[in-house]
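Researcher: Good morning. I'm working through a list of sequences from a screen, and I'd like to move beyond sequence-only analysis. For each chain I'm collecting a predicted structure so we can compare shapes side by side. This is the next one on the list. No need for commentary yet; just the structure.
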Amino acid sequence: LVGAGPASLACAGRLALYGHEAVIYEKRALPGGLNTTGVAAYKLSTAAALREVEFIQALGVEVRTGVEIGADVSAAELLERHGTYRRLWAR
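Model: Good morning. Structure tokens for this chain:
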């Protein structure tokens, strides 16, 4: 998954629960998207948002931060690393 915001975290968590490998690539240093960096602290603290990320990681999801798609890794490289989707699209 590209971007470690709430949608990718939810998707990755569900995939992990179904027994699939899930890897999230995030260009920022901290995962969590706007929950981590954009919500006012009195509404949702950064620590609380990061606890949610830790919960998803505990399900077996790998989060790779500091990786920008297109600059650090290309879409083609992602397909090569995680070839399941490439095989599905080849049908």
